[in-house]
Amino acid sequence: MESRPVIQLDGLVVRFGNRTILDNLNGSLSGRAIGLLGPNGAGKSTLINTLLGFFKPARGTARVFGHDVQTATRRVRGLTGYMPENDSFIARMSAVSFVTYMAELSGLPRDAALERAHEALFYVGLGESRYRKLEEYSAGMKQLAKLAQAIVHGPKLLFLDEPTNGLDPSARQRMIRLIRDIREKGDLNLILCSHLLRDVEETCEEVVILKQGRIVHYANLEEERLLNRKFIELETDGESEGFAEGLRGLGCECALTGERRLKMVLTGAVEIRDVYRIASERGVNIRRLNYKRDSLEDIFLKAMENGHGQWSAPAHAEVQNGRV
Amino acid sequence: MAVYKRGYEPYTGRLTPEWSRFLIIARHAYRGMFESRFLVSFLVVCFIYPVVAAVLVYLPHNAAAMAVFDVRKLFPVDGAFFLKFLSWQGTLAFLLTGFMGPGLVAVDLANNALPLYFCRPFSRAEYVVGKMAVLGFVLSAITWVPGLILFAFAAYLEGFAWFTGHLRFAFAVFVGSWLWIVALCLLALAISAWVKWRIAAGALLFGLFFVAAGFGQAINHSMNTDLGHMVNLASIIGAIWAWLLHESAPMPVANAWFSLSAAYAACYWLLRRKLRAYQVERA
Q1: What is the value of ipTM here, to two decimals?
Q2: What is the pTM of this model?
Q3: Could you count the other beta carbons within 10 Å of the beta carbon of residue A111?
């Protein structure tokens, strides 16, 4: 069954005065967890804010679950939860009052809002301190409270804008675990905006890389990981050419990259033990075998180098499950 | 299952009607507001004059009091009586706004709370109406509500003919109070949104009121005109109340309506400009 796109962008342009912040964004994203990556000022937060209807597009349209963010703003906001980047809270309120208040504003009746506020605060790990005033919270606790208010009304799409900002390593790990848990358990999609590659790598399935207001790359991390598992670098001691021939005989692509170095791609039927068998038959010692990991950092750097502000895919390319 | 054992679950229950959600702001605001003893004491003080006025309405119907002196001549229940009531309660309403109003929006702006409101199915208009409702309910309780009770009490004592003959008093109290309440609410919210600092917003609200009055008087004296009243909010609303109650006004009522409309428009413009989820800074 064809799933409905979470986000559809059609020639989206956002300008602040004379400055173009988002420049002709096109695409359709359907992944459960989508990462928005890019250097500072790339337009990540502006894209999220435009999807929430905070900024008016100068041209083009953006749709969330098929609803135009300009004409059906209220409907879109009813389906989404938002965790802002900066410190945002209501003064002189305890965490439980704050989250209840936010739930009520989202339309939950008073009793349900209170119950779900307690649930959400326990879920994010603030159960014991839920009656403390937000002003007394540490930076990490404030981030968790912001996450609680974003999920309390059970949104279908969760926008997380730099959720690990200002967190120490253990608090960051906790936040990442929570986001992964929400992704796995909840019937919701999430869009995580970050300039931290590890955050995106650890939580998202798809990545959209922005540069100077344009989409310069799209990557399906699941498929990249799958490819990475099949891509091997070998360092041998012996006659490499014959060994490479033998590997090609198995049906694998293989290339010599140095005197005793090879790169190969495993096909579906070939396993590592076959590589060792061929090496044994040819009298070659394998001194080192590495799975080549084309990390998100590599992908990101390539996108930054090659992008030049232009996405390599066609103007109206549809990005769905990793295929453009 | 116990609350602390539950995981993340989507919400599938019913939702409240959209039109009623602005009231949530007022409900939550009152929770913190009435913890202030000063504010509660001040509210109590606000009801002293209506009680005194009720006694003055009653005295002409008390034989013992009438035997001592003719109260009806001293304190007639007429347009001037209700104008005095509006002036006194209107002043208290202004002071109450000065204490309550500045914190309503400034605190949200200072804590970057607006994105949290506006990322939900909750519009800017609902936010403004919600914040106005916080003041509106309290100011109503000290202006038109006791005013109409006073009118009803007088009508009860004076009889049906007085009631039908003086309905304009009730109309004037109701409409005049609301004009003042809306002006105070808009002014408090706009200044609060503009200054973003509670104490400064409070000071500016009082300053605007008193400085504008002084400035208006200076214009009147130096230029030998009454156009100075047009920048004095007390004169403006006083003229409209007097016009509604068929009393003599300190300035032409057309000028007063124009000034009040301009004040409303300026506040609306300022609120529209300042109340956004995110401000775009000009480079």
Answers
A1: 0.86
A2: 0.82
A3: 10
